[in-house]
Amino acid sequence: MTDPTPFPFPTDVAGLRVALFSGNYNYVRDGANQALNRLVGYLQRHGAQVRVYAPKVRHPAFPSMGKLVGVPSFAIPGRAEYRFPLALSPRVRRDLDAFDPHVVHVSSPDVVGHRAVSWARHRKLPILASVHTRFETYFRYYNMAWAEPVIEALMRRFYRRCDALVAPSESMAQVLRDQRMNYDIDIWSRGVDREIFNPGVRCLEWRREHGIADDEVAIGFLGRLVMEKGLDVFSDSIDQLQRRGVKHKVIVVGEGPARDWFAARLPQAVFVGFQGGADLGRAVASMDVLFNPSVTETFGNVTLEAMACGIPVVAAAATGSQSLVDDNVSGRLIAPGAVRQFGEALRCYVEDAELRARHGAAGEERSLEFSWDRINQAVADTYLRLVRLKANKKVR
Fold it and tell me: Taking every annotated instance into account, which residue ranges of this chain make up the domain Glycosyltransferase subfamily 4-like N-terminal (predicted)?
């Protein structure tokens, strides 16, 4: 029988202490760390204390939310913009002990994430892991597909030592169940800022400045320019349109180490570089179709942003977009890597303005369901559930 004596743990967000571990909290901007920073901001507004443990750099991509404590790290060879966390140093462990968190949140299955899980398990603290990307799929883009089962096994060991997971979509949650990563999985979806992403910020003048005529259909790519985003599939699919004489333009929004490769592959494309805030919203709304062939995302922030702008999406039928796009209603879902089918789906949108408008409107309607506050409260509720479960075990 459970002892009814009250236990000294918070029962709501106010007073909750969260230790968050991230491999990239703010030194390179991406969808995952944008979501983590939004979560920290939400928790702090509601009275929680959050301490973030992650690599620090001299010139981060953006200011961090919450107190950021640097962990030892080194630049990854060949991808120097990213850092590899090394260890929980004595200094970091002292800081953790002094902070005395109620719950530990790990967001990357790296070395420091593993050490944080061990630290929390030793103290019988609840551990939540958030899943932000399909790391195991990255290796297939670098001719190392043989490593995928090994990485998946290592990830399984990591996630099964956690008390629960949060995934950004039900489709990703099902992948995790199928991979036997864990079976206590809640959904931490993603939201969209409607002030930035909406059809009203479409700008014909901006298009003209980049050489796109008012009557031309612009197919957009949005994201970091790295091979694992499916740049090869994107360019091969665009070749399908060119071979069939389908008039179109390509807008590429983003920067990354594969930019030169992508620019050489698509010499007629318009590369507008990194865009942020209102500039990003304008760029997305000024597209006519978003093409997202990536299979590595667990949610698909870019897909949701395009939908909020009333833009139909052609995407890989994979985790993330699969939970957002209603096939043949708000866009098209195509088998990953199916270049000819991607090309045909794009052709239909390029040649049918009414279809673009109808599917774009359906996507915008769907995007209205994604409120950041409601989404982040779901994570807070999971923290509190795990704290309550651990506390009940302690008072038995």
Answer: 30-195
Which helix (H) or strand (E) is 36 found in, with range? helix 31-45
The CATH class of the 199-367 domain is alpha beta
Task: pLDDT band for 394, please (50, 70, 90 cuts).
Answer: low
Q: Are strands 73-76 and 79-85 parallel, antiparallel or unpaired?
A: antiparallel
Residue found by looking up tokens 């994604």 in the block: 370
User: Which distant-in-sequence residues (6+ apart) come within 8 Å of 174 by Cβ?
Assistant: none
Q: At what angle do helices 353-367 and 301-308 cross, to 10 degrees?
A: 110
What confidence tier does 299 reach under pLDDT thresholds 50, 70, 90? low
Q: What confidence tier does 134 reach under pLDDT thresholds 50, 70, 90? A: low
Could you tell me the residue ranges of all domains in the chain? Answer: 17-191+372-394, 199-367
Equal fold, 17-191+372-394 vs 199-367: yes
- Residue 39 CA from chain centroid, whole number: 13
> What token pair was written down for 4?
């009814």
Euclidean distance between CA atoms 92 and 387, whole angstroms:
23
What is the rounded distance in angstroms from the CA atom of residue 126 to the CA atom of residue 107?
14
pTM above threshold 0.85: no
Q: Is 387 left (phi over 0), alpha (psi -120 to 50) or beta?
A: alpha
Stretch among 2-6, 188-192, 251-255 having the lowest mean pLDDT: 2-6
pLDDT in tens, 73-107: 887 787 777 787 888 899 999 999 999 999 999 99
Instruction: Quickly count: other Cβ atoms within 10 Å of residue 323's Cβ.
Output: 21
Q: What is the sign of the dihedral through the CA atoms of 107, 156, 230 and 171? A: negative
Write down how long the chain is. 396
Tokens of 349: 């949108």
Give dist(CA 173, CA 16) in Å, integer. 26
- Per the listing, tokens 């949060």 go with 166
| 102-106, 207-211, 224-228: range with lowest mean pLDDT | 224-228
Contact 271, 252 (CB under 8 A): yes
Alpha-carbon distance 347 to 359, whole Å?
15
